[in-house]
Amino acid sequence: MRSLVFLAAIGLTAAEDGLNAWLRYARIDGARGYHNKLPSAIVTLNATQGSPIQTAVNELVQGIDGIFGKKVAVTGADKRHRPMTAATVGTVHAFVDSNPGAANDLPELVEDGFYLKVSRGNVLILGQNERGTLYGAFHYLSLLAQGNVSDFSLASNPDAPIRWVNQWDNMQDGGTHGSVERGYGGDSIFFWDGKVREDLTRAAQYARLLASIGINAVVVNNVNADAKTLTEENMDGLARIADVFRPYGVQLGLSLNFASPQTLGGLPTFDPLDETVISWWRGITDSLYRRIPDMAGYLVKANSEGQPGPMTYNRTLADGANLFARALKPHGGIILFRAFVYDHRSLNQTLDWKADRANAAVHYFDGLDDQFDDNVVIQIKYGPIDFQVREPVSPLFAHLIKTGTAIELQISQEYLGQQAHLVYLAPMWKEILSFDLRVDDQPSPVSSILNGKRFGRKLGGYAGVANVGTNTTWLGSHLAMSNLYAYGRLAWGPASSLSAEGILQEWIKLTFSSDRKVLDVITRMSMASWPAYENYTGNLGIQTLTDILLGHYGPNPASQDGNPWGQWTRADADSIGMDRTVWNGTGFAGQYPPSLAAQYEKPDTTPDNLLLWFHHVPYTHRLRGSNKTVIQHFYDAHYAGSATAQTFPALWRSLRGRKGVDRERYEHVLFRLTYQAGHALVWRDSINTFYFNKSGIADELGRVNNNKYRIEAEDMQLDGYVPYAVSPFEAASGSRCVVTSRGNGTDARGEMRTVLPGWVKTGRYDVAVNYYDMAIGNSTWELWIDDRLVGNWKGDLEYILGKAPSPYIDGQTATRVTFEGVKIRKGSVLRIVGTPDGLEPAPVDYVSILPEGLSSGVKHFLIRRENIVLKSSVDGFTDSSCGSRASVLMF
Ligand code: GCU
């Protein structure tokens, strides 16, 4: 039990579970003082029951009450009692109907846009359509919740019409009911047991959150779609989801399985040009629209990772996409057809230096640009491979000129720490969206391609793979929700003056509070998080280096090569990187418009952060920027990135008791940041050891494999424990750990003990234990110094973190617990007692006896930035029962 008794006494604000995310409408300081600047009534122009305008009104009533404690009355335009201040809410159309003279004073709005005017308590909230009105209301409330009650007027239009999220929810998947593929926040909020859930409360709450950030559609089921989604019963269920979305202006979209006419419909074929197939899809589509007249459309993954598609019948991808486009056309629906098309069975790197999965999208789509119907949009992942920590922008955006495109971003952090690591992604997305693809040597930022302006197209936009689940935090982590928020804000205005940091600060104010320290600390951690993660995972464009075969989570660089998935590094003893040049490599660089292609063709014009994406170079190759060798850059980056992560728990602790940081969320976040700090070290050591071993080149600073404060478990005196060779070897310090050897249960407990070495003088230390928490049992461990129990912990992370579970002793399960400020005497005996459980043999890798403060990175941090906040954060946390600091209890 990870209880935090010590928090009880320190007056944290009321517990929150995250369900309301940034829509908490929490009371702001000095609320009463603002009452006369707020409307006293809400005048509705054209609110019909269940419409987004009605929702806008309800939100305004609830929000103004929550934020300021002011009750506002709701009245129709005809019943308005003057001279009250009022918020007038409705569509432009309705407003002009009742105020014909006003038309000329109103700004131009596009679909979903809104106009907002605030003047001494009188507020005008007008939408271009009903949904736009709701967006305007949410925008006004957001400003109020951030303490902004000043007069202003604003016309806001979305940059692009498609602002969707994708959910990879399974109705039923091999016995896993309602799971979410690459989801780390619990089960599906839509499906259970092969059906649509009866209770769709969470679906409605989700729609509310999404509407507040301008998202207008949700594709509710996995791109690896199940044909059974289209049974009559399930279509009825989908209609119920659409019903709970509708008051929020959120439309329903559906992923389809290309082979459904055969697997569900019983036809002998699913050939897209076959008449019976065409009419089967038409029938299904009509039947869906009868139930859901405002359905947004379809999403299709075809001929990818084993999914069926038109190429099964030697038809083109355009034949496949148009099949759906034509069925949707009479209903006004659109089809998002994915560009994530590749054949993993054809990739064999050992035989072919020129094989490259990155080439696939352009390869398959080239020549088809003028063949897609006008309601087809090609949905393209931001990079040519798959949501890595750093990829160049997909060159396909520069190839489709006539066809609408949408960018696919991943809010769910599949390769980026699975919400167990804080990684704020808006800086990456901003970089991608502003990247200039130089089509025809003209300015061509990605966002201008998506909004259709660059090539004069109507349809385009954004698809964010969100994968929220039933966890009350939605994504499994409170801090990860900044990514969902930022996604919506960027999809609405990618090129707006709002920076990634500005968006983040809005989110912090809404989610926690406007307290300066809260803003400062969460901003600092979040803004440092993507660079840190890139540093401690995969640098220089080599990709994330996660275990590609299992889980996509922890380090396993060897798994990247010798597999059919094509996320290769081609690392050998001398050199590393994918040669994607035209002159000697896979030719991928040549897929970019000429000026970029020329830049990427040569190592000395390629940006350092993409060097290994485009080039195969010796480890001794020197970088343009720093003049460091590639290998030294790896070493340094991994030390730097993991050191940054060490500062996160202490930074967060400095927010204990601050406004908006309630006990429940404080505890939840601290636990994760502490875990992240430990796992960042696992990453650092795994990657550095792996490449040191591969290249044989030592770290110039002598750090790699030279861990001054470390005592290996296998070097201790073992009783009931035996050494175990870990695979991959780099996932264990010294390539071995220890595991219990006497089977199961309390009788099977084992012990390791050692007299602490001579360099451990009498004093206080941070004692860290690296161990493995596999998903096949809940072992327990105790750490003793002499006859004193320093602390104990349980291997149940699999129930706490939503990350992919692993049954192995590897980089996914390696983790660390730290006990701060532990009193040790010279010559003390350290013991760890481990009790196995299930199939988990209480594995331990090593123990570190660290000078106090080193584990939290606080000293390191204080040297680099004199931060007064931090000083207080490490003081005064003594827990009397074991004489160590509070974070002991966190783990
Ligand atoms: C990744 C991911 C899969 C997903 C696929 C896709 O490969 O790991 O789970 O199905 O992307 O986007 O289709």
Automatic annotation (TrEMBL):
The active site is at E305, D386, E414. The keyword Signal applies. Residues 1-15 form the signal peptide. It comes from the Eukaryota. Residues 148-474 form the Glycosyl hydrolase family 67 catalytic domain. Pfam families: Glyco_hydro_67C, Glyco_hydro_67M, Glyco_hydro_67N. Its EC number is 3.2.1.139. CDD domains: CBM6-CBM35-CBM36_like (cd02795). Its main location: secreted. Residues 21-140 form the Alpha glucuronidase N-terminal domain. GO terms for molecular function: alpha-glucuronidase activity. Keywords: Carbohydrate metabolism, Glycosidase, Hydrolase, Polysaccharide degradation, Signal, Xylan degradation. It catalyses: an alpha-D-glucuronoside + H2O = D-glucuronate + an alcohol. Transmembrane segments: none annotated. It is found in: Secreted. The keyword Hydrolase applies. Residues 476-703 form the Glycosyl hydrolase family 67 C-terminal domain. One of its GO terms (cellular component) is extracellular region. One of its GO terms (biological process) is xylan catabolic process. Alpha-glucuronidase involved in the hydrolysis of xylan, a major structural heterogeneous polysaccharide found in plant biomass representing the second most abundant polysaccharide in the biosphere, after cellulose. Releases 4-O-methylglucuronic acid from xylan. Belongs to the glycosyl hydrolase 67 family. PANTHER family: ALPHA-GLUCURONIDASE A (PTHR39207). This is Alpha-glucuronidase. It comes from Chaetomium strumarium. The gene is aguA.
